[in-house]
Amino acid sequence: MHTEQVTQSHLLSKITSTEQLSGLSVLKDMKQIILSGIVLLAMLACNRPASQKQNSNLAEEKTASDTTLSCCSNLPSRFASGNVAGVDSLNSSTADLSGMVLINGARFWMGGDSIWGRPDEFPRHQVEVSSFYIDVQEVTNKQFKAFADATGYITTAEKKPDWEELKLQVPPGTPRPSDDVLVAASLVFTPPNRPVSLDNASVWWAWVPGANWKHPEGPKSNLTGKDDYPVVHVSWEDAMAYCRWAGKRLPTEAEWEFAARGGQLAAIYPWGTELITKGKQKANAWDGKFPNKNTGKDGFVGAAPVGQFAPNPYGLYDMAGNAWEWVSDWYTADYYQECMNRGVVVNPQGPAKSLDPDEPFALKKVVRGGSFLCNDDYCSGFRIGARMKTSWDTGLNHTGFRCAVSVK
Ligand SMILES: [Ca+2]
Question: How far is ligand 1, taken at its centre, from the CA of residue 136, in Å?
Answer without folding.
Answer: 20
